[in-house]
Each structure stands twice: as structure tokens, then as C-alpha cells.
From TrEMBL:
Keywords: DNA-binding. Residues 24-43 bind DNA. It comes from Streptomyces exfoliatus (Streptomyces hydrogenans). InterPro entries: Homeodomain-like_sf, HTH-type_TetR-like_transc_reg, HTH_TetR, Tet_transcr_reg_TetR-rel_C_sf. The keyword Phosphoprotein does not apply. PROSITE patterns: HTH_TETR_2 (PS50977). Pfam families: TetR_N. This is TetR/AcrR family transcriptional regulator. It comes from the Bacteria. Residues 1-61 form the HTH tetR-type domain.
Length: 191
């Protein structure tokens, strides 16, 4: 790897260990084995590097928890929609403990958005793309074939994921299971 990649990997480690607000340029340099000048040369600023590192971490998390149709344990698109929903949540909740550092970081980043317009702008488009990725990878909805269906399904799942993961962070003993969420959906649907 070159300095640019080393910096990104070092920044990702620092974000997970120290958080967004406590990570300094010197921390990143120490974690990456590079030098301070490399940050400005490759990323322009520490903040731009941290934004890239945050986006990379959330993208990597999404790739780890997405149930693809080709993957092991995947539920095929033609499967019962409730079973597909349950499988999606089983995958997400199954990764809850391993995902804790990323969700802790995401929670911190959300609290910074009112004071950091550049950060807010940097995550808007990846958030939109993430919704479509959830719809496609976890629900089998092709965003190109049905963009509106993918958009609204992704919005709902993204909103639920945030709430579910926060519940798992606060109290794993009473946080919802995949079966709880599926039964709750059945109740909401009047079944």
C-alpha cells in the first residue's frame, strides 16, 4: 500500500478506537506509519480524510451485513416476503455485536451534523445509495427495475436499522429479534 491507502486504513482504525471527535492528525500518522504532510497531500485535510474513512467503514459494514441472493443463507427474491424480511433482520441482528464500533461511530457522527455542514454533505449521497443497497441486497428489489419501490423499501429498512441497532447497543437483553420484528410487521399489516 502507498501512503494514501495507509492513511485511510490508519484513519479507519482511529475512528473505531477513538471516535470522530477525539482522533487527531498525529493519531492517524502514528496508526498509518506515514507523516503529517501526507494527509494534506493526499486528502487536503484531516477532516476530509476522516470523512473518507467514515464512509469507507460504513460501506464495509453494509457489505458485511447484506444478504445477497448469491450468498450463503440468502433468501431468494421469490420467497415469502415475511421470510425475506425475517432473514434480513436475522443477518443484521446477528452482526450487532461485531457492528457495535461502527454504530457507536455513526451515532457520534450524527451528533456532529448540525455543526459540520461539510460532513453532512459528504454523507448525503452515500446514505441514499445505502438505502438502495439495502433494498437490493437484503430484499431483492432491483433499484433499476423499480426505483421507487427500492427507494421506499430502503427508507423503511434504514430507519428500522437505526432504531434496532440503538436498542441493541442500549440493552441487548430486550432488543428485538428478527422474529419479533417480523411478527410486529404482521401485526401492523393486520394479519
Amino acid at each position: 500500500m502507498g501512503h494514501k491507502e495507509d492513511l485511510l486504513e490508519g484513519a479507519k482504525r482511529c475512528l473505531l478506537e477513538k471516535g470522530y471527535g477525539r482522533t487527531t492528525a498525529r493519531d492517524i500518522v502514528a496508526a498509518s506509519g506515514t507523516n503529517l504532510a501526507s494527509i494534506g497531500y493526499h486528502y487536503g485535510s484531516k477532516d476530509a480524510l476522516l470523512q473518507q474513512a467514515f464512509l469507507a467503514l460504513t460501506e464495509e459494514w453494509g457489505e458485511r451485513v447484506t444478504v445477497s441472493d448469491a450468498g450463503e443463507g440468502a433468501v431468494r427474491p421469490a420467497a415469502d416476503p415475511y421470510e425475506r424480511f425475517r432473514a434480513m433482520w436475522a443477518q443484521l441482528i446477528g452482526a450487532a455485536e461485531a457492528s457495535r464500533p461502527v454504530w457507536k461511530l455513526q451515532t457520534e457522527v450524527v451528533t456532529r451534523l448540525d455543526d459540520d455542514e461539510k460532513l453532512r454533505e459528504a454523507i448525503k449521497e452515500p446514505q441514499r445509495e445505502g438505502r438502495l443497497g439495502i433494498a437490493e441486497g437484503m430484499l431483492g428489489i432491483d433499484p433499476e427495475a423499480d426505483p421507487e419501490k427500492a427507494r421506499v423499501a430502503g427508507l423503511l429498512c434504514q430507519a428500522l436499522a437505526t432504531g434496532v441497532m440503538i436498542q441493541w447497543m442500549v440493552d441487548p437483553d430486550t432488543a428485538p429479534s428478527a422474529d419479533d420484528l417480523t411478527e410486529g410487521l404482521r401485526v401492523l399489516m393486520g394479519e
